[in-house]
Amino acid sequence: SLSQPDREGMFHRGPGLNLTSGQYTAPIAGYYTFSTTLHIVRREPRRKGQGCRGSRLRVLICVQSHCQQNSNLETISRLESSGDLFTVSVTGTLYLQAGQYASVFVDNTAGSPLTVQSGSDFSAVLLGV
């Protein structure tokens, strides 16, 4: 018989991922491929008179919460006025020392509250040392 997996435990295999903090901690030093897909809802429409300027959404995967140019993966999406649901993906490779962590950041310059929906994901796979 099929059983519904726990929401938190779904596709959770191997050490390193802390579901409370949203951080993946590298068990050993090496190159890791990271991937995240976020389903984001804009909660309220842009107010009248608020131009399109600045309505961008940056999604980053950063090492040790430092989002400098050389230690992160980043994508920038333009929030079009039509539609309130956006899907943003970031994928790439980062080098982590043993014990370093990587996590996802959302930089919201849209001027509207954003909510990350369930069904979003974050994964890390060791490629090699």
UniProtKB/TrEMBL annotation:
Q: Which Gene3D superfamilies match?
A: 2.60.120.40
- Look up keyword Disulfide bond and say if it applies: yes
KW ATP-binding (keyword) present: no
Q: Name one GO molecular function term.
A: hormone activity
Q: Where in the cell is it found?
A: Secreted
> Where is it mostly found?
secreted
One Gene Ontology term of the biological-process aspect is:
positive regulation of insulin receptor signaling pathway
GO CC terms for this protein? extracellular space
What keywords would UniProt list here? Answer: Disulfide bond, Glycoprotein, Hormone, Hydroxylation, Secreted, Signal
Top-level taxon in the UniProt lineage: Eukaryota
Residue ranges of domain C1q in the record: 1-129
Cited PANTHER family: ADIPOLIN, ERYTHROFERRONE
Q: Say which family it is in.
A: Belongs to the adipolin/erythroferrone family.
Task: Tell me the protein's name.
Answer: Erythroferrone
Q: What gene does this protein come from?
A: Erfe
